Amino acid sequence: QVQIEEFEGGSVEAGSSLNLSCIVSRYPWMSSCMGWFRQASGKEREQVAYIDSDGTTKYLDSVKDRFTISQDNAKKDLYLQMSSLKPEDTAMYYCATAGDCGWLLLRLHSYWGQGTQVTVSS
What is the pLDDT, as a whole number, of residue 75? Predict the structure, then answer.
């Protein structure tokens, strides 16, 4: 069974930085897509950023130039560097993986962590 754990969320002030980490155990695929999603209270879950097996990355427009997704290819760990945080970035952040990005974006045939809370105060 795949295990995914997210770390390093927290409460910060606007303009601050946070770095999220995601540790994946028992990785099931030879190659895959991994990504970060978030869900704010009362809102739908949205894709924040993902990275494909060839290193291609894609970001939500509102986080471009502020967030950076990266991956340790050997360990399959995933990271999200967040800077210039805004109150609207407040949400539960989830790490997820799937065999390809199409499945991940559809949230099908995918594995998810329990989430880590990020709270940004103004």
Answer: 67
Q: How far is it, in rounded angstroms, from Cα 21 to Cα 101?
A: 19
Pairwise CA distance, residues 103 & 122, whole Å: 36
- 94 neighbors 115 (Cβ within 8 angstroms): yes
pLDDT, mean of residues 108-114: 91
- Helix, strand or coil for residue 5? strand
Q: Check if the beta carbon of residue 103 is closer than 8 Å to that of residue 110.
A: yes
Each residue's pLDDT tens digit, 56-75:
999 999 999 999 999 987 76
How far apart are alpha carbons 47 and 114 in whole angstroms? 15
Instruction: Write out the two tokens for 67.
Output: 């967030």
Three-state DSSP class for 108?
coil
User: For the chain, what percent of residues have pLDDT higher than 90?
Assistant: 70
Structure tokens at 79: 């990271």
Residue 10: count of CB within 10 angstroms of its CB: 12
Looking at residues 10-36, what average pLDDT do you find?
89
